[in-house]
Description:
two-stranded antiparallel sheet, alpha+beta
Amino acid sequence: LARFTAVLFSVEPFKSRKDRFNVRGVFKPSQDSGLSAPSHGEHRNTAVSASFDALGSERYVLTEDNKALRDVAAHVPYDSLVVMANHPRYGGGGIFNFYSTFTTDNQWSDYIFVHEFGHAFGGLADEYYSSSTAYNDFYPKGVEPSEPNITAHPKSLKWQDLVTAKTLAPTAWEKAEYDVFDAAYQKQRQQVNAGIAALKKRRAPRVEIDLEIDASEKLSAVNGKEVDAFLARSRFRGQVGAFLGAGYSSKGLYRPMLECIMFNRGLRPFCKVCERALVQAIDQLTKP
């Protein structure tokens, strides 16, 4: 709890508004360690029945046992609920005004926690568009998303007042080049993950499984660095505009900035639009 509390308050706007928050933890031991992962043939008896493969997405972690979850949470007062799951695999989820989840023992755990909290607390949309998700046509064509950080209308932006001077909208970032190397990574990641699932299902020797998991983690780390390096070279870095590719859609939806913790992996700042939305959420729940 102390570790992730420190993580949250290392990122704005939470850092400068730390005194507006109370953080409480409730520990509920489970009979089994870890999480269920049906696609891996793994089933665990846990306190709130949290599981990978939620809504058919292998990385999405949710619980459908709302009663068990609320019974645990009822031991303390709360406005926003976070489920911490002890597991080494990348996973998490976040639903606005409901709860968020994350796995605590992955190389990306700090990022996942803050990212998913952005969903559950601030109502922020995912800004990425190439990773596999459980959602198909989540944002219907021609309908403006309700979330504050993505839009279908780059010529009439809801964050127009934050647009950087002389930055055009839509903003002609290096998307085509990005998509080429990202597509190659997504294909490789899916193959590796499918291989791990197959090994687990046939109960392969643990050392064999661990080697594949280690390869997966290294692949993810290398890709994270490649993405950061690519975006760092963009002439649009740090500018607010309308960047094509957001909300699980390569076309038709736009995000405010090139980089944001709602777009690319790693513990990094929220973009200016997301940060403003979070400030508004904090102000609604607390007295300035």
